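User: Study the shape:
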Amino acid sequence: MPLIIVLTLIGASGCSPRQSAARPTVSPPPAGPILTTQAPLDQMVGTEFGGRLKLVAVRLASAQLVLGEPLTVDLHWQALVPLNQDLRAFLELVDENGVEVAGDDDVIGTRSNPTSGWPIGGEGGHQPRATVPIRSQVQHVKVRVGALEADRVTRIKISNDIGASLSDDSVEVAEFSMP
């Protein structure tokens, strides 16, 4: 007569795997101190750079800037004239002393839709990210964006005055402060 052995496995918690998987997970705490902004997450801008390119809109990914974690900003651009080169956008995070503490730049419109192929009215986006170091002692951070020539160095000057908080080559889109 064949011998049949039946094994019953019991987990340490007394639950089945399906039940234990249903337990809520706890998110780890933020990497560092948190600064917040009152700026709207979605903003219509309209700033023109060099009479060639317009920053149409900006979207902040979050109303919080966590030191040690990236801040992502969506930029929406439009060509005012046919563009014959691949222009770039920059993002800079500047502390209360006017020192850049983080930044990023890349091709506007993504590498699959660079500005060199845009006709008048052509549009594209850019999504720069910048991370303020966790050891930074900042209490206040301004977020500025602008456009660069293809050489990645020369900033394109702003060619209109729309009353926004801006310098001659960048527009301030948010200010983050310690609560």
Summary: Residues 6-20 have pLDDT under 50 and may be disordered. The two ends are 77 Å apart (CA to CA). The CA atoms of residues 21 and 123 lie 45 Å apart.
